[in-house]
Design a protein that fits this description.
By secondary structure, the chain is α+β, with helices and mostly antiparallel strands. The protein folds into 2 domains: 139 residues, 3-Layer(aba) Sandwich (Creatine Amidinohydrolase, Chain A, domain 1), CATH 3.40.350; 223 residues, Creatine Amidinohydrolase. The chain is built from 11 helices and 17 strands. Helix 1 packs antiparallel against helix 7, helix 5 crosses helix 6 and helix 10 runs antiparallel to helix 11. The protein is globular, with a radius of gyration of 23 Å. The termini are far apart.
């Protein structure tokens, strides 16, 4: 099956993959991660995350049309989702999916250099491909693929914005409506229900109060929300099947103290410093440096390995906002800026997280940042 990529819903994304093959002088691309198969294949296979042995592959020979190879259990759904015409399958527990992949590659006339997402392809699959395909060279193209996905389409940005605002509304409404004397688990249950009512499929939830706010990713328990204690939430959902939300807020049970108000204000200043560093052409590390420098100016302890990340199908996409990242920002990237401070002496942690689109004139905030601690009835 040969010919140019048709102008379909996946065409622009596949064209980016084709450009990688041309630039790297590769014969074919084979990607297998949930993020990459979803992005380039126009699919959503939740089992790629929950059942990692149920492999799926997007195959793009250079200058030819793509093939999707999936487990037969998933075939009907994949055909209903994708506009890729060549969908093939294997039978779980009967076929070895990587052996079937090798047969597809031979059928498609692939030999030589194959670009792979090496950070996701199982080691056993890589060894089998090398043994089965004589002369095949597996070439990691992980960073190339990540960069190809970093600049979002208008529809992707619109979905990211709508999902983030729905997630924010769920947090704010839960804080306002929760009964006095409620538990952490009751908060978590209500906020997930509100997410689902807004079209989100809950993906993850970090919620805790009191000293547990100091942990990186605590889960809610039946502990009562005690007056005067902080709580914090970091949570997200999938919207339109594949686009993720990820938002963090900090709150208090009852009325906050002036010290708590001042700490949030200082933390928000660090987030604003990160937003102000967003402009096309600047390296991603500039945002990290702006945030970390503002932490020092505000007198807050700083211990974050990164201060945010790209968003899309993946939860942490390129570019990561970390101190060694020289990737240049481009218009159309969407970034989460999420400063967090842990105060050991007060047994409290504050965390806030919001989305910004990189535009030619600087950042466009997709969620309104937090100005006050969210209050739950005492």
């Amino acid at each position: 099956m040969t010919g140019t990529i048709q102008r379909t819903a996946t065409a622009d994304k596949l064209a980016r993959l084709e450009q990688i093959l041309e630039r790297r002088d590769l014969d074919c691309a084979v990607v297998c991660s949930y993020q990459n198969v979803s992005y380039f294949g126009g699919t959503y296979l939740m089992t790629q995350q929950s059942l990692p042995d149920r492999l799926a592959f997007l195959i793009l020979p250079r200058g030819k049309t793509p093939t999707l190879l999936v487990c037969a259990i998933e075939t009907s759904m994949v055909r209903a989702q994708t506009d890729i015409g060549d969908v093939r399958d294997y039978v779980e527990f009967v076929d070895n999916p990587t052996e079937v992949l090798a047969r597809v590659l031979r059928d498609r006339g692939v030999a030589g250099s194959i670009g792979i997402d090496a950070r996701r392809l199982p080691l056993a699959s890589g060894d089998l491909l090398r043994d089965t395909l004589s002369g095949a060279e597996l070439v990691p193209i992980d960073d190339d693929i990540e960069l190809a996905q970093a600049v979002k389409s208008r529809s992707e940005i619109d979905t990211l914005e709508a999902g983030a605002r729905a997630t924010l509304a769920a947090a704010e409404e839960t804080a306002a409506e929760l009964r006095a004397g409620a538990t952490e688990r009751e908060f978590s249950t209500m906020v997930f229900l509100k997410l689902m009512e807004r079209g989100g499929a809950p993906l993850f939830l970090v919620f805790a109060s009191g000293e547990k706010t100091m942990h990186a990713h605590p889960e809610s328990t039946d502990a009562r929300l005690e007056p005067g204690k902080l709580w914090r939430i970091d949570f997200g959902a999938r919207f339109n099947q594949v686009i993720n939300s990820d938002l963090a807020r900090t709150g208090v049970i009852g009325n906050p103290s002036q010290e708590q108000r001042d700490t949030l204000k200082a933390l928000r200043a660090t987030q604003d410093a990160g937003f102000n560093a967003i402009e096309p052409g600047r390296p991603a590390k500039d945002i990290f440096n702006a945030v970390s420098n503002e932490f020092k100016r505000q007198g807050l302890p700083f211990g974050m390995p990164h201060v945010g990340h790209g968003m899309g199908i993946g939860l942490h996409e390129f570019p990561m906002l970390e101190p060694g990242n020289d990737i240049r920002l481009q218009a159309g990237m969407v970034l989460n800026v999420e400063p967090m401070v842990v105060l050991q002496n007060r047994k409290e942690a504050y965390h806030t997280e919001d989305l910004a689109e990189v535009t030619a004139s600087g950042p466009r905030l997709l969620t309104p940042p937090q100005h006050e601690l969210l209050q739950v009835r005492a």
